[in-house]
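FIELD: query
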Amino acid sequence: MRKSARQQAPWRLGIAVAAALAVVLSGCGGADERSSDGASGTPSGTPSSGVPAGGTGGASPGPGSPSPSPSSSPVFREQAEAVAKFLRENWPEGAGGTVVTARDGTLVGCQGLGQSDQGAGRAADCDTVYDIGSITKSFTAAAVLKLEMGGALRVTDPIGAHLGAVPVDKRGITIHQLLTHTSGLPEGIGDDYDPVSRDAMVAGALAAPLESAPGREFAYSNVGYSLLAAIVERVSGVAYDDYLTRNLFQPAGMTRTGYALPDPGRGDVAVEYDEEGASQGRPFEHPWAPDGRPYWNLRGNGGLLSTARDMYLWYRALEGESVLSAAAKAKMFTPHVPEGGGSAGSYGYGWTVTPTDGGPVVTHDGGNDWSFARVLIRPSDRTLVFWVTNSVIREGGWNLEEQDRELSLGLLAALSAGSGGGGK
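FIELD: result
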């Protein structure tokens, strides 16, 4: 049985987070992309296109998709070479995946690693589509903030203002508490693939016993983010992922992110592999709802499909105000509540704010039994790291979920090459 999409183990780092993080990120202006061939590396022994974003390996970009290329400056080339060297030395041979990195608003490189479909011998590349798991929550939070920008709701609203009749014990729950995992709702109320409709999910969530009083403590809740997706639908009057497409993905230029991909793009979706190396198929080949999307135990909290190219474009969109205003981003990246449980991080809206020696980062991960993804943005030097795998564990071989911190901070350090910046 596939485990529910969720944030995995917390990072245990011991430095205080500056509350000014949200101001720093919101104040970043987008830099123009510097177009050239750039440097891109492929770990030895792993079949891969190794192409930069916008390169020619594998699938072509979606219609209208920009084709960013790495910078030709010596510093950026040095960083690209450092990233490639790090991946050669640390990415396990045989693991499929893609890594995209950027610095100062400029693409450093995008590397495909291993294979996205072993049966077809298809190499992973920058346009390979993956299940990004609980990184979905960052987009759900952005959708809520977009609705607030338009005056359709406020994050201080009680959920009953948008969900109708609510039991007495849940009348005090606010949208803010759903966003910050402080609602008191349980982590989940069933399996991802249970055939649950939106209204049935809402009814089940509202009937579930609270695990703590609303607002009292942080407790990660997938249910809470599915309720947020239901609120997005009820307030906007359109399907959750249609709202994301029109208001987030299209303005950002993202053409391969969502639940329902066009048929020609389905072959670009990575096949997932279990710890024995056996194929578990593509996400949409498991029980999904008749509308071609996940059932509601997963919708809104996990299961979105995306590419490294699109995640780079999302990072670029967050640098400007084409999608979210500075005020909305400040709310999203504010460290609202400590996560506790050994984590040095605090939760914002759909993001964790985590300290590192090189400065605080905003981050989230997502995974299931077979795939795992991590996104990090460090505002101090406008650095992006996104990596994803379709084969997270191999028995007797590797466990990329356990290597998450080492890989992610190592890539951050590589992006400091030639700049005199800190890394870990």
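FIELD: remark
The longest strand covers residues 106-113.
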